[in-house]
Design goal:
Elements: H1 2-27, H2 31-34, H3 38-55, H4 67-90, H5 98-127
Helix pairs in contact: 1-3, 1-5, 3-4, 4-5
C-alpha cells in the first residue's frame, strides 16, 4: 500500500512539474502572466490524478510490468488530457491555454513512462545485477 501511495504522489508531482514547465515554455519568465494560469495547472493535476486512479494505474505491480502494461499509462494520460480539455471548455471559471494543456499532456506522459522504467530498473538492481541472466 505504501508503494502505491508513493507512486501516486510521484505521478502527481510529475504532472504538476510538467504543467509548470509548460507555463515557462509558453510565457517565459513573465510571472505576472503565468500567475493567471497557475490555478488551471493545479486543476489539471487534480483531474489527472483522479483519472489515473480510475484508469487502474496503481493495480499493476510495476516491478514486473511488461511493455503492454505501459499502455495503461498512455491510455490514462490520453483520457486525462481529453477530460481536461472537456472540463476547461465547459467550465469558464478557469482558463488553460491549449498549448499549455497539450505540453502538460506530452510532458507528463513522457515523465510517467520514464518513472516506471526507472522504477523497474532500480528494483532489478536491488534484486541482482542489471543485465544478469537468471
Amino acid at each position: 500500500m505504501l508503494r502505491k501511495l508513493i507512486l501516486f504522489l510521484i505521478d502527481i508531482g510529475l504532472t504538476l512539474f510538467s504543467g509548470i514547465v509548460s507555463l515557462f515554455m509558453r510565457f517565459g519568465f513573465d510571472f505576472e502572466e503565468m500567475g493567471k494560469y497557475d490555478e488551471s495547472v493545479i486543476i489539471y493535476t487534480l483531474i489527472s490524478s483522479i483519472v489515473y486512479i480510475l484508469n487502474g494505474n496503481y493495480r499493476i505491480v510495476w516491478e514486473y510490468a511488461s511493455p503492454r502494461d505501459m499502455l495503461f499509462l498512455v491510455r490514462g494520460s490520453i483520457i486525462s488530457y481529453l477530460v481536461n480539455v472537456t472540463f476547461f471548455y465547459f467550465y469558464r471559471g478557469s482558463i488553460l491555454p491549449r498549448s499549455v494543456g497539450f505540453s502538460t499532456f506530452l510532458g507528463s506522459l513522457i515523465l510517467l513512462l520514464l518513472s516506471r522504467i526507472t522504477w523497474q530498473w532500480i528494483s532489478n538492481l536491488r534484486k541482482g545485477k542489471a543485465g544478469e541472466k537468471r
